[in-house]
Input
Amino acid sequence: MRRTGALAGKSCDLSVYEEGTLKVGIIGLGVGEAHIPGYAKHPDCSLIALCDRDSDRLKAVAERHPETRLYNHAEDLLSDSEIGIVSIASYDENHFEQVCRAISAGKHVFVEKPLCQSAEEMAEIRRLLSANPSIRLSSNLSLRSYPRFTALRSAIADGEFGELYFLEGDYNYGRLSKLLDGWRGKQSFYSIVLGGGVHIVDLLMWLADDRIVEVSAVGNAICSADSGFGNKDMVVAILNFESGIVGKLAVNFGCVMPHFHRVSVYGTEATFENRPDAGLRYTSREPSAVPARIEMPYPGVEKHGLIPSFVASILGGETTLVDEKAVFDCMAVCFGIEQAVTEARIVKIEYDY
Output
């Protein structure tokens, strides 16, 4: 039996690690089915259970992945003592309860964003992790794995941009129907900042290697007017970083354009602009200067791109690309932006450490 790194914890049933295999269960088989190849890439992982409230979807996915246990209720999968890691890809309003159940049952957690929907819920998750220190948690903040952005971060870290002073990121979703007709619009509370802007918040802090300490924000619901959707469909936030960098975030679910992450990085020595066809890197202020094209793939990875790193952190004690601190930091900023929009004031970000 192989038990290394985080496997030394005593909170899981030992059968979880029988013959060196970490057994996996997945809740929510929309995006959740896309997690499966990520686990399949690791020889020490074995998918043993699937869960979806839609019986037809559950059956269809099970046909592609036979010999798995099938559950219609998340609590039944979370009660399965053989499962050592659970992917949670259910609706946003279910994440908190399922994450808490998983941690309490001694299961490592990979959860789709957002981790939860309030600062109070996040505090409870943090408390449970503190009580179960062998458990690892990560969230699918996938922009960190995009080759174009990883190359950009390396160039920034190597000093090629000089000193950063301004970062911009737009989460242009271009899928208004997801709010008007899909499950998002049917929930009692859905935040586009938590559901989409979270990606840009994490990316900007990761690129700058710096924390956001203060935010202000405004928003509107013009695109979803008279639809019954109960929150903003457009939010713009100004972000103040600890180092003095200024940032701007826009989350735009109603835009008439395809889904795209517009990212601009301004340094004293270079500027980067992300475009659908390529990234552009400017190193001169001369009007005739031609920017270099950054042809690294965008996105260039699938939705399971972060999972192999997460699994390695569990089985071998390596550091995952998105650790618990990154998840909590990102969520704290998102909650601050929601608060700034609602209360029309500048909000200082509270980090609980």
